[in-house]
Design goal:
It is a single chain. By secondary structure, the chain is an all-alpha fold. The protein has nine helices and two strands; from the N terminus they run αββαααααααα. It has a two-stranded antiparallel ribbon with strand order 1-2. Strand 1 and strand 2 form a beta hairpin. The longest helix has 24 residues. It is globular.
Length: 189
C-alpha cells in the first residue's frame, strides 16, 4: 500500500485532471464540486488509513505525514549509487520533455504543474546540492537532500508516483534539466 501526503489532494484541487494533457483550471461553476469531491476523497482516504493502521504498521509503515518507511528509503540514494552518464544536451532535452509530462504521475500532475517559470521554488533552491530542503526533512526525515533525491521526493509526494529507477536515464535527465532550471532561478535573483 502506498500512502501519499494529504498535500497531494490539495495540489490537485482546482485542476481538471480528466482533460488529458491539457491541465486547465476548472470553471468556477465546477470548482465547488471539485473541491467537495477532493474533500470527500481525503476523508475516505483518512478513514481507509485509520482502518488499515494496524496492517500498515505490520508492513513497516512509519508514522507521520503518511509516508511509508519503504518510500522514505526509496527516495534516498542507495549505497553504491552511480548516476546514469550521458550527453548533457540530450539529457536536458529529455528532461524538459519529462518535466512537462503528466503521465509520470498518478494524479495528472507534472513537474511543470508546480514549477513553470521558476514558480514554487524556495530561496534554498539557490543553494548548491546537497542542502537542507524543508519538504525533505518534514516528509522524509532527510537533513540534506541531493538534487536527484529531490526529483524522487517530488515523484513520490506531489506527483503520487513511484520513484524513478536509480541509475536510470529518466532520473538523470530530470536531474540535469532541474540543474538548468536552478541556474535560471539563480540568474533571476
Amino acid at each position: 500500500m502506498i500512502s501519499v501526503p494529504m498535500m497531494t489532494v490539495v495540489a490537485v484541487a482546482g485542476f481538471n485532471i480528466h482533460s488529458g494533457s491539457n491541465l486547465g483550471l476548472i470553471p468556477s461553476a465546477e470548482a465547488a464540486q471539485g473541491e467537495a469531491e477532493g474533500e470527500a476523497k481525503g476523508e475516505a482516504e483518512g478513514r481507509a488509513e485509520g482502518e488499515g493502521e494496524a496492517e500498515g504498521k505490520a508492513e513497516g509503515e512509519a508514522e507521520g505525514e503518511g509516508v511509508s518507511a519503504s518510500l522514505k528509503k526509496a527516495v534516498r540514494r542507495p549505497e553504491g549509487y552511480a548516476p546514469y552518464q550521458g550527453d548533457v544536451a540530450e539529457l536536458r532535452a529529455l528532461g524538459e520533455k519529462l518535466f512537462n509530462d503528466n503521465s509520470l504521475s498518478s494524479n495528472g500532475l507534472s513537474c511543470a504543474t508546480c514549477h513553470t517559470n521558476g514558480m514554487v521554488y524556495l530561496d534554498t533552491f539557490k543553494n548548491q546540492y546537497p542542502h537542507f530542503v524543508a519538504m525533505g526533512k518534514r516528509d522524509f526525515g532527510m537533513d540534506m537532500v541531493h538534487l536527484d533525491e529531490m526529483v524522487q521526493i517530488c515523484m513520490v509526494a506531489p506527483m503520487a508516483a513511484e520513484p524513478l529507477g536509480w541509475g536510470s536515464k529518466e532520473l538523470a535527465a530530470l536531474t540535469e534539466y532541474t540543474l538548468q532550471e536552478q541556474q535560471k532561478y539563480i540568474d533571476k535573483q
